[in-house]
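Changelog-adjacent note: as of this version, every example in the card shows the full chain rather than a window. The one below runs 149 residues end to end.
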Amino acid sequence: MRYAFVLLMAFAVFFADINNNNQLSFVTTASAADSEDEVKDAPEYEYFQMSPLMIPIIQQGGIVQQVSLVVSIEVPYGKIPTIERYQPRLADAFIQDLYGVLGAGYGLVNGKVLDVHAIKKRMLSVTQKVLGPETATDVLLQVVQQRPL
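Full-length structure tokens:
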């Protein structure tokens, strides 16, 4: 038993390092497999949440509804800085597109309820037009509120 303890201590000293503060720390060597695991552990996508969008629906008689949307954009990992840089331009493009579509009644079911699938599809198209086709993979509607006026 005593020999096993001595062997264990000798093995520990062999893989140990004493730093400048005379503290003992164990040295490990990173292998190529470890670095591959780190790359595999990185998430495939990130989500960027935009500021809420408020869009009035204006028809012949004036403002008939107020629509509020909270949008998150799914982007490949590492692309968040690009989205942040273009957020004002993207918000402007969303408002322009949805203002026209909703005012004309194309994004509404029976002229009243939002067609969420059609809105998401349009918003993804606008996002890819503003940022480029490789930048955004999906648009997620986090909050959708409609308020008749």
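Structural remarks: Confidence is low (pLDDT under 50) at residues 3-20, 22-28.
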